[in-house]
Amino acid sequence: MRSRFAVLFALMVAVLMGNVAQAKVYTKCGLTKELLNNGFERSYVGNWVCLVESESAKNTSKVTDKADRTKSLGLFQINSKDWCKFGSVGGKCQIKCENLIDENIQDDSICARKIQRELGFRAWDGWLRSCYGRRLSIPPC
Ligand SMILES: *[C@@H]1O[C@H](CO)[C@@H](O)[C@H](O)[C@H]1NC(C)=O
């Protein structure tokens, strides 16, 4: 009986920790540091932080259902239509869409920079809306 409770408890802890790990919300400063650690150029980090604030409110697990039945996923709200594939590796970023909503933003970051190289920041409505034309220096930490 006691070991059954132990198993149940361990399971509950695992589920709770899983949820915590799945939905990380960064502070502005935490995000700035994380972007610098993930290979973003210092001179653009102000723009990226603004973009992420506008697109996902810094929430790594944000999912937005779009009218065309695609989804925008994660911190950078990367769209499932072109850039990733559900269920297997694919899209222009060669990643699983599911991996764009976990707390590991390394793959998200590589994909976001690819989108920026190909289409520019104007690929993001949130950037156009909130960041375009502003002088965005790196947030102080
Ligand atoms: C982050 O996004 C997830 C998925 O949409 C949501 O369940 C969660 O409540 C959000 N967290 C915060 C703090 O807004």
Task: Report on this structure.
The structure is a single chain. The protein is 47% helix and 6% strand. With 141 residues, the protein is mainly α. A 3-stranded antiparallel beta sheet has the order 1-2-3. Helix 2 packs across helix 3. The protein is globular. Bound molecules: 2-acetamido-2-deoxy-beta-D-glucopyranose. The site of 2-acetamido-2-deoxy-beta-D-glucopyranose (NAG) has 6 residues, from loops. GO terms for molecular function: lysozyme activity. Belongs to the glycosyl hydrolase 22 family. Keywords: Antimicrobial, Bacteriolytic enzyme, Disulfide bond, Glycosidase, Hydrolase, Signal.
Could you give a quick summary of the protein structure above?
By secondary structure, the chain is mostly helical. It has a single domain, classed as Lysozyme.
Radius of gyration: 17 Å
Bound molecules: 2-acetamido-2-deoxy-beta-D-glucopyranose
What is the count of DSSP helices, taking H or I runs of 4+ residues?
Answer: 5
N-end to C-end Cα span: 51 Å
Strand order of the largest sheet: 1-2-3
- Assign the structural class, choosing from mainly alpha, mainly beta, alpha/beta, alpha+beta, or little secondary structure: mainly alpha
SS elements, strand count: 3
Mean pLDDT: 90
CATH level 3 topology: Lysozyme
Major sheet summary line: 3 strands, antiparallel
- How many structural domains can be distinguished in the coordinates? 1
Helix content: 40-55%
The CATH architecture term is Orthogonal Bundle
- The parts where pLDDT drops under 50 for at least 5 residues are 1-5, 7-11
Signal peptide: 1-23
InterPro entries: Glyco_hydro_22 (IPR001916), Glyco_hydro_22_CS (IPR019799), Lysozyme-like_dom_sf (IPR023346)
Family: Belongs to the glycosyl hydrolase 22 family.
Keywords: Antimicrobial, Bacteriolytic enzyme, Disulfide bond, Glycosidase, Hydrolase, Signal
